[in-house]
Design goal:
Length: about 700
């Protein structure tokens, strides 16, 4: 039985912009929106690779647009809306890209820039096109019933800014503070970036926190309840499961599958990587699927109502339609979608067959409609993108199994299908929020839709580059020996230079007794001499969502999953659901390193104290002061993090091999005891939290 429609929300009468054409689709609005989209897109790539989470960028971009209007050159409310519309595409696409495409590395393939660029481009454009014919129903007809929380809040910010009440000062102050803090800690090394404690009386346990400003800001925006649940998952992994494995496995005489070394010789991080991440993967997959099942009535209602609206809405002559109701022509939608599907099939970089191209269109449209509807109810931040992507991947893989398309070569095809669908549904949700904002401020829909397409085109260029840059910045080459294995003469391999010599480079996958990864082989003996450890998948950038996608694909197509560990994760998620708690948030905590969830929890604690001190509704979605300042912390900290990642690979002195990052690190040389101690780092981070608490109570 279909669920009843959501109850009407508090009436929010749209702001009617005058029909005398205000500046809207201007060159300066598009350029500024594209620039801000690139900035927040880079920050989202950084966050997505680090913790598997991102935050919405629409409101901070709207506030910065208003600040530009007041500080540089006066812009109209419609121009400011166009700025946030163009800019918001960068964040949504970046999140979906880093949730999926780095899985290429975990599946044993090279991650190629051309493939990344094309997948992001097609998925982003499909997300915009699929939503155009449904705008009138989901935005206009359902006004007052679908709240679209971020879109409505963004419209309120733009309207207040039009009358002089909003300021970009908080975002700017947060950005400068986040950048300065990150540089002093990560660049100069004045205090420890990740305080850690391993109690000797409790073997295997470890408590740590990466005290970065961007993670503190993420925790504040997520809120106290969400951060507490996530931290609970982290404590389960690092204070219960890892010590449990250590206690019962340290006397084993041989490695325990899927680990390759003795448990007695493993650190807590190695135990997490070898065993706990599979438990977390099972929990996250289960939590995502439970969310999908709960949403099925909403999905069905949305699809049925939207399809009916699409076939029954009669459109008149373009001249007879008011400016605020003009969408891009339906021919652009249909023709563009078909061209993109044909493009996916025809371009070799996609490595896609006809069935895969058809699946992309089907999954992309279905999940985009679902994403738009659910985003209208719960908002972009709460839309379970990873759960939808897992569902798309499972559907694709099961169909491949039915067709006999199993084995390693088909894993890349399945991932591409899921990646395009994920990017499409992510950008569809953002598109819906932007069009809701435009409806409330009296924008022109076709101009917004064009602006969204431009935002896609500009952001995808830097998103892939940023991901590759961060991967290269943390890639390490270490000596290794693979006893009993030599590279066969017929195996294709690239020739690369390393340590003054030539080597054959080859990525190995699925070979018994040989850990998956990339290796450098001696050309004469064809024996392994070095292993190339990618930055993505390391402790700096674990890319948890992408690793989960790889686990799902290999488990179904190659049957390589340690199902016992995965089923433990499934049982944990079901147990948490029985307690009446959302299992997906808890499961993400199980899956992430505690060093990432701990600072997010501390940000949630700051939000809790701020709500109590300033007498606000706990974790309210319309909280503006602290959210804006936290957005600045995220942007500033993430951008400096990307800069420092680049400096770590920039060799300053060729003779000594010293990098710029090593030269900048004054703390370990001038203040070795202070910079290595836990207490000073915790005190500095506490001061940052107090600053955030203070800013959360200031309106300007």
């Amino acid at each position: 039985m279909a669920s009843p429609p959501p109850a009407p929300t508090k009436e929010f009468r749209p702001y009617v912009a005058p029909e005398t054409l205000l500046p809207e689709f201007t060159f300066r609005a598009v350029v500024l929106g594209a620039v801000l989209g690139v900035v927040f897109g880079i920050a989202s790539v950084y966050l997505g690779l680090k913790i598997g989470l991102t935050t919405t960028a629409s409101i901070p971009i709207a506030v910065l647009a208003i600040g530009f209007s007041r500080g540089v050159r006066r812009t109209s409310i419609l121009e400011n809306n166009m700025i946030q519309t163009v800019g918001s595409a960068g964040e949504s696409i970046a999140a979906a890209v880093v949730f999926t495409l780095p899985a290429m590395i975990f599946l044993g393939f090279e991650m190629e820039y051309t493939h990344t660029f094309l997948v992001a481009l097609t998925g982003g454009l499909l997300g915009v096109l699929f939503m155009i014919p449904l705008r009138r129903y989901l935005i206009v007809k359902e006004h007052g019933r679908l709240p679209y929380p971020e879109g409505t809040a963004c419209a309120e910010v733009l309207m207040v800014g039009e009358t002089g009440g909003a300021s970009a000062g908080k975002v700017i102050r947060g950005g400068l503070l986040g950048a300065g803090y990150k540089f002093l800690m990560g660049g100069l090394g004045l205090w420890r970036s990740t305080p850690a404690w391993s109690p000797g009386f409790y073997r295997g346990a470890e408590v740590s926190a990466e005290i970065s400003p961007e993670l503190l800001g993420v925790g504040y925006i997520l809120g106290y309840r969400t951060s507490v649940i996530m931290a609970g998952g982290g404590l389960l992994s690092w204070l219960i499961l890892i010590p449990f494995v250590k206690l019962f496995g340290e006397n084993l005489p041989t490695p325990l599958y899927p680990g390759t070394t003795l448990i007695s010789a493993m650190s807590p991080s190695e135990i997490w990587n070898s065993y706990i991440r599979y438990i977390g993967a099972g929990a996250v997959a289960t939590g995502g699927l439970i969310g999908l099942i709960r949403s099925l009535p909403t999905i069905w209602d949305s699809f049925r109502a939207s399809a009916g609206q699409l076939f029954t809405t009669a459109r008149g002559n373009g001249a007879e339609i008011p400016r605020t109701e003009r969408d891009l022509p339906i021919g652009v939608v249909v023709g563009g979608s078909l061209l993109l599907a044909a493009f996916i099939w025809a371009v070799p970089a996609f490595q896609m067959n006809a069935v895969g191209a058809i699946l992309i269109v089907i999954f992309g449209f279905f999940f985009s409609v679902w994403s738009w509807r659910v985003t209208g109810v719960v908002g972009s931040s709460s839309c379970p993108i990873s759960g939808m992507t897992i569902a798309a991947l499972m559907g694709t893989c099961l169909l491949f199994v039915a067709l006999g398309w199993t084995g390693h070569p088909y894993t890349a095809v399945a991932l591409t299908v899921g990646a395009v669908a994920c990017i499409a549904l992510s950008n569809a949700g953002t598109t819906s929020q932007d069009l809701k904002t435009g409806y409330l401020v009296g924008a022109t829909p076709w101009k917004q839709q064009t602006g969204l397409a431009i935002g896609v085109l500009t952001s995808v260029v830097v998103i892939g580059w940023t991901m590759f840059f961060l991967n290269a910045s943390r890639t390490q080459v270490t000596p290794i020996v693979l006893p009993g294995y030599t590279l066969e003469a017929a195996t294709p391999a690239a020739t690369v230079q390393h340590a003054g010599g030539s080597f054959l480079e080859r990525r190995l996958f699925g070979i018994p007794g040989v850990p998956d990864g990339k290796y450098l082989f001696d050309p004469s003996t064809r024996e392994a001499r070095f292993q190339v450890v990618d930055g993505i998948g390391s402790a700096d950038f674990p890319a948890p969502q992408s690793r989960l996608m790889a686990v799902v694909i290999t488990g179904l197509l190659e049957r390589r999953l340690p199902w016992g560990l995965v089923m433990l994760g499934v049982a944990i998620a079901l147990f948490i659901e029985l307690l009446g708690i959302g299992s997906l948030t808890f499961a993400v905590g199980v899956y992430l390193p505690l060093s990432s969830t701990a600072p997010i929890f501390l940000g949630g604690v700051v939000r809790h104290f701020a709500d109590r001190r300033y007498k606000r509704e706990p974790d309210a979605s319309d909280e503006i002061p602290g959210t804006l300042f936290s957005s600045g912390l995220i942007a500033g900290g993430a951008l400096v993090g990307v800069l420092l990642a680049g400096l770590s690979g920039w060799v300053w002195d060729a003779a000594s091999g010293h990098t710029v990052a090593e030269i900048l690190a004054l703390g370990p040389r001038l203040l070795p005891a202070f910079s290595a101690a836990n207490l000073p780092a915790l005190l500095v981070f506490t001061a940052l939290g107090v600053w955030l608490l203070r800013e959360a109570g200031r309106e300007q």
